[in-house]
Amino acid sequence: MAAVDSVSVIVPATTANLGPGFDCIGAALTLYNEFKFMRVESSFLLEGEVGKVKITVTGAEAEQMQTDESNLLYQAFVKLYQHLEQTPPPVEIEIKLGVPLARGLGSSATAIVGGLVGANVLAGEALSQSQLMELAIAMEGHPDNVVPALLGGCRLAATGVENQPLRRQEWVICDVPWCENIVPVVAIPDFELSTKEARQVLPTQVSRADAIFNTAHLGLLLRGLETGNGDWLRAALQDKLHQPYRKALIPGYDAVNAAAIAAGAYGMVISGAGPTLLALTDTSHSEAVAAAMSAAWQSQGISPTVRSLKIDTQGARSFY
Questions:
Q1: H helices then E strands: how many in the chain?
Q2: Which one of 30, 169, 179, 274 has the minimum C-beta count within 10 Å?
């Protein structure tokens, strides 16, 4: 298509891991960041503005966002032009934040995907969706958040066959059916937890028994999500690779977990690297589970935002 001068991009939040699916499974949620990119003349940028970008941010936590060339959204924007071996144009960017920062809901993935999609539209859609996905995974370092943010739905990512002659290793993406009766309830606390900190507590090696445990439970999780079988989901949401180590970083974890299950949740997991906690329940228990999680955290002196969401099936979309 012909290049355009302005584009808006909406990117959904994501929840990754879902218990045993560490670094390989994620789902897009009905919570969004919005980005608008406008090609401008260099003279439009005022003296004192850094480089070739002007960034304005609105929404909760807007004051925490970088508004210069270090902004991750802009870095992704530039990355696409570098991939095309082109010079990125001067651009004005407007950001509307709806996804909390550093809470385990894929805020960085929304920035990476949003920047790549926005730049691709301004560049005349030079890259395919699969090429955008490969760039996004390379920037993020793992696929579990950026893939559903781009494609929507629940997705499992695995590397393809290695060492094929004349072919580089590619990602294989599998759509994971999600039963409509399964409701994701997110409890977002009023404190942050960096992905770096959450990764530092993980062991460098795991036992064969723990690896087998997670393999079995990931398989059960896939079937539980597809069928809505509550007994399968109650067992499947267990994990031995990351949650036993990370939950110590989240005050009140055990209390919120107990409250969610008592209110009818199949189970509770850490969303991404945390500290957001995600409960899976059915439609008839979602309100009770949300209320119980909120009350449990408030009893610990923590003020959460708790929301019953749905799975976003569209992923990133652009308007121009």
A1: 10, 11
A2: 169
Per the CB < 8 A criterion, the answer to whether 293 and 276 are in contact is: no
Contact criterion met (CB below 8 Å) for 309 and 186: yes
DSSP line for 126-188 = -S-HHHHHHHHHHHHSSSTTHHHHHH-SEEEEEE--TT-TT----EEEEEE---TTEEEEEEE
38 φ/ψ angles, rounded to the nearest 5 degrees:
-130, 115
Fold category of 6-175+312-319 in CATH:
Ribosomal Protein S5; domain 2 (3.30.230)
CB 116 within 8 A of CB 125: no
Q: Residue 109 above 90 pLDDT?
A: yes
Cα–Cα nearest to 25, from 161, 178, 179: 178
The superfamily in CATH containing domain 182-308 is GHMP kinase, C-terminal domain (3.30.70.890)
Q: Where are the domains of the chain?
A: 6-175+312-319, 182-308
Q: What is the residue-averaged pLDDT of the chain? A: 93
CA–CA separation, 27 vs 93, rounded Å?
27
